[in-house]
């Protein structure tokens, strides 16, 4: 099996400059599955930045993928603003109770202080450890939840869905306070040295219409991305589910790279906005990475590369979303091995259709 000839940081740096690389960048997006690498329970990550960092460092060292990210779940910002979160013993946290039950109480919601509130300080602790221990080898990032998604969690998904139709002013007020938390959290990550990435799952066309995305999510997303750009950082944006009707808007918001879910088409995305943004994805995280065989992973990875390796702004091999926690190690390894086997896709015979 082919071996890497460059470190992850060398590879990404060269790729960004249009220089030759040993293989395409590849990041399986292991997420909380890093707990399995060190044999701990996911719930042990709560307020334990050192353990979060240890898990991701060991996972990176095991598979040698091309990016390490501080991220545990979608609720850390909403929780720091007053929402209540459930912590299963060995699964990803979930929303329990919104911060408020009525829009009349919006004024009670204050932006979070990432150095004091909720679990945010522990994530910053993890960030510092990553920068200290692996940043000279691999790009390090910090996951920030987008303003629109956090706004949903502050009042609950069902209530927010009604507000979209009946109370636009309240939606904008919720997005505004959520944006301030996102800005502060992104700033804290950048002060440490990490690059923020943005997850905006509830901006998906599976959840809201493109019209509502452009009205409620886009303005705040663009302000967040503009702020990150002002600090000299590029931005990867992930929105789950169907996104083809908002790819142009996602690019207009300033995203440098779009992370594409497996229900969307890499080739279509390339045709529509590939001259404007890098794309990454989109091996099925559940049906292939979790439930498939290593050969299934190999075939799916090859197909993704066939579709997108020649994207004008570049392409990164990745799963369509965060991997399920118990994704088999051999499947994660299969994705990495396939990337190494392909090498330079422009010269690879493997991409000829069987």
UniProtKB/TrEMBL annotation:
<dbReference type="GO" id="GO:0004853">
    <property type="term" value="F:uroporphyrinogen decarboxylase activity"/>
</dbReference>
<dbReference type="InterPro" id="IPR000257">
    <property type="entry name" value="Uroporphyrinogen_deCOase"/>
</dbReference>
<dbReference type="InterPro" id="IPR038071">
    <property type="entry name" value="UROD/MetE-like_sf"/>
</dbReference>
<dbReference type="Pfam" id="PF01208">
    <property type="entry name" value="URO-D"/>
</dbReference>
<protein>
    <submittedName>
        <fullName>Uroporphyrinogen decarboxylase</fullName>
    </submittedName>
</protein>
<dbReference type="GO" id="GO:0006779">
    <property type="term" value="P:porphyrin-containing compound biosynthetic process"/>
</dbReference>
<dbReference type="InterPro" id="IPR052024">
    <property type="entry name" value="Methanogen_methyltrans"/>
</dbReference>
<feature type="domain" description="Uroporphyrinogen decarboxylase (URO-D)">
    <location>
        <begin position="8"/>
        <end position="341"/>
    </location>
</feature>
């Amino acid at each position: 099996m082919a071996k890497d000839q460059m470190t992850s940081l060398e590879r990404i740096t060269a790729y960004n400059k249009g220089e030759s690389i040993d293989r395409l960048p590849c990041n399986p997006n292991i997420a909380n599955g890093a707990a399995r690498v060190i044999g701990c329970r996911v719930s042990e990550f709560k307020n334990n930045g050192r353990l979060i960092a240890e898990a991701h460092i060991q996972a990176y060292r095991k598979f040698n993928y091309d990016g390490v990210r501080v991220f545990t779940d979608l609720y850390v910002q909403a929780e720091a603003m007053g929402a209540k979160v459930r912590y299963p013993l060995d699964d990803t946290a979930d929303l329990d109770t919104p911060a408020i039950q009525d829009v009349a109480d919006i004024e009670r919601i204050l932006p979070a202080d990432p150095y004091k509130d909720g679990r945010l300080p522990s994530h910053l602790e993890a960030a510092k450890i990553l920068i200290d221990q692996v940043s000279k080898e691999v790009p390090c990032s910090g996951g920030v939840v987008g303003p629109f998604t956090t706004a949903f969690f502050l009042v609950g998904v069902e209530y927010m869905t009604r507000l979209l139709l009946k109370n636009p002013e309240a939606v904008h007020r919720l997005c505004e306070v959520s944006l301030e938390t996102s800005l502060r959290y992104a700033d804290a990550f950048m002060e440490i040295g990490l690059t923020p990435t943005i997850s905006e799952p509830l901006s998906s066309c599976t959840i809201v219409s493109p019209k509502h995305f452009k009205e409620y999510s886009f303005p705040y997303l663009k302000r967040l991305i503009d702020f990150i750009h002002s600090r000299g950082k590029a931005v990867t944006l992930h929105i789950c589910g169907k996104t083809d009707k908002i790819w142009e808007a996602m690019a207009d918001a300033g995203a440098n790279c779009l992370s594409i879910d497996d229900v969307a088409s890499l080739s279509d995305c390339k045709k529509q906005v590939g001259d404007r943004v890098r794309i990454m994805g989109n091996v099925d995280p559940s049906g292939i990475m979790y439930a498939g065989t290593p050969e299934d992973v190999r075939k799916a990875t090859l197909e993704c590369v066939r579709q997108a390796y020649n994207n004008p702004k570049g392409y990164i091999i990745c799963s369509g979303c965060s991997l399920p926690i118990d994704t088999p190690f051999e499947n994660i390894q299969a994705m990495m091995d396939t990337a190494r086997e392909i090498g330079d896709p422009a010269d690879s015979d493997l991409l000829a259709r069987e």
